[in-house]
Specification:
Blueprint: E1 6-19, E2 22-35, E3 39-43, H1 50-57, E4 65-70, E5 73-74, H2 80-90, E6 91-94, H3 106-116, H4 124-134, H5 150-161, E7 168-172, H6 180-197, E8 200-204, H7 208-211, E9 216-221, E10 224-227
Parallel strand pairs: 3-8, 3-9, 6-7, 7-8
Antiparallel strand pairs: 1-2, 1-4, 4-5, 9-10
Helix pairs in contact: 3-4, 3-5, 5-6
Bound molecules: adenosine-5'-diphosphate and magnesium ion.
Adenosine-5'-diphosphate (ADP) binds near residues 46, 47, 49, 50 and 52.
Length: about 230
């Protein structure tokens, strides 16, 4: 029997947001298990709670009820400082807008989080070069973001998110701004990363085509998981 490590465990997770007199039930009881090295996509209509769920998994916010365990650590009741540390150590984020620093080259953008890491495990420039090579950007390292296509910029953002080698990469609509072909290249880049480093990846996407490139599809509707929550061995 193989025992695979769980990187994400969520149990009974709810998130309520107060808006004046109203309470919005953004998540209504999420049970979820994601194994080490899985690439999972989350789909669902706009407003179904995808970004809220990703934010809770990534320690950007805390749930109203329920528990969340990330890489063996219960983050449910952590304070802001503790969450910041978990994010720095364990989680890489990428978003729809690439948020690269326009005045820095691709190489400098990727090297930056290594220079700022409290525990520096890599040589910044060497690591940045390796990651950009791996993502097919070996000949673009000295270009600034404005000199790169959207798909190339997103791959630089992936390299930056992975700079300190987090076990978990979270991506919120990473291909939302890209044409289909560039989007597929981004998901292929995530597969390359998984093969190379065993990184677990969770991608929120509107694009059904991309889900065929992931191991498992989780469907969220009205704050609840309709399908795909548990790993079936
Ligand atoms: N900061 C917020 N304040 C109030 N309501 C919010 C906030 N963030 C999200 N919501 C609401 O929570 C629900 C889930 O939103 P979200 O997670 O962004 O959905 P998705 O990413 O699937 O489009 C929606 O009804 C949304 O309007
Ligand atoms: Mg969203």
């Amino acid at each position: 029997m193989t025992t695979q490590k769980m990187v994400i465990q969520a149990q009974g997770v709810t998130k309520e947001l107060k808006l004046g007199k109203h309470t919005i039930h953004a998540l209504r009881g999420i049970d979820l298990a994601i194994l080490d090295g899985e690439i999972v996509s989350i789909v669902g209509p706009s407003g179904s709670g995808k970004s809220t769920l990703l934010g809770l998994i990534g320690g950007l916010d805390t749930p109203t009820r329920g528990t969340i365990v990330i890489d063996g650590v219960d983050i449910t009741r952590m304070n802001e400082d503790q969450l910041t540390e978990i994010r720095n150590e364990k989680i890489g984020f990428i978003f729809q807008f690439f948020n690269l620093i326009p005045t820095l080259t691709a190489l400098e953008n990727v090297a930056l989080p290594i220079q700022f890491a409290r525990k520096r495990n890599f040589n910044p420039n060497k690591r940045a070069k390796e990651l950009l090579d791996l993502l097919g950007l070996g000949d673009r390292m000295n270009h600034r973001p404005a000199e790169l296509s959207g798909g190339q910029q997103q791959r630089v953002a992936i390299a930056r998110a992975l700079a300190n080698n987090p076990p978990l990469l979270l991506a919120d609509e990473p291909t939302g701004n890209l044409d289909t072909e560039s989007g597929v290249r981004v998901v292929e880049a995530l597969q390359t990363i998984r093969a190379e480093s065993g990184t677990t990846v969770v991608i929120v996407t509107h694009n059904q085509d991309l889900t065929t490139y992931t191991d498992r599809v989780l469907t969220l509707i009205d704050g609840m998981i309709q399908d795909g929550a548990m790993h079936t061995l």
